[in-house]
Amino acid sequence: MAGRKPLPTRLKLVKGTARPHRMNPAEPQPTVSVPAPPEHLDDTAAAKFTEMAVLLARHGVMTELDAGALARYVVIWRRWLEAEAEVKRRGPVVKTVGGNIIQNPFLSVANKCLAQLGQIESEFGLTPSSRTRIRMAAPAETRDPFEDFLNRGSTA
């Protein structure tokens, strides 16, 4: 599909760009939650997943549907850490078997990971520039229908 990616209705409301005639009434509205880290993550990545999920949920961004995107984020984050360790250990340039000096291949891996991390961080609103496009609305007052029923019954 050509053109810009459509924004979720919740994000349109937060940004103040929602137009009733352009809203999708059947759009899923998942609830904010902190999902468990996927089993394929190692301990370090799982800990980072949980840390980020709690942080994102606190800001109303994390739902169970976002677990895959966050898992990709922590996998790339872990790969970036490993590549950075190799760049630190060997330096930004290395000597080949033939004696030529080339850029450390791990530097390319680290740079690619940084670009991918930046894209995912932008999706979650984790960069200063992506946050400037979001205006937080006042939280809606939530009412418990059962509490209303009980209160209505006591005043009659």
Could you provide a short overview of the structure?
By secondary structure, the protein is mostly helical. The chain has helices at about 10-15, 45-60, 65-90, 105-125, 130, 145-155, and strands at about 95, 100-105. Helix 2 crosses helix 3 and helix 3 packs antiparallel against helix 4.
Which consecutive residue ranges, at least 5 long each, have pLDDT under 50? Answer: none
Overall shape: it is: elongated
Structural class, from helix and strand content?
mainly alpha
Radius of gyration (CA) equals: 22 Å
Element string (H = helix, E = strand)? HHHEEHHH
Descriptive notes:
This protein has 156 residues and is mainly alpha-helical. It has a domain at 32-134. The chain contains 6 helices and 2 strands; from the N terminus they run H-H-H-E-E-H-H-H. Helix 3 packs antiparallel against helix 4 (105-124). Residues 15-37 are annotated as: Disordered. It comes from Paracoccus mangrovi. This is Phage terminase small subunit P27 family.
Keywords for this entry:
Phage_term_ssu_P27, two-stranded antiparallel ribbon, 156 residues, Phage terminase small subunit P27 family, single chain, mainly alpha
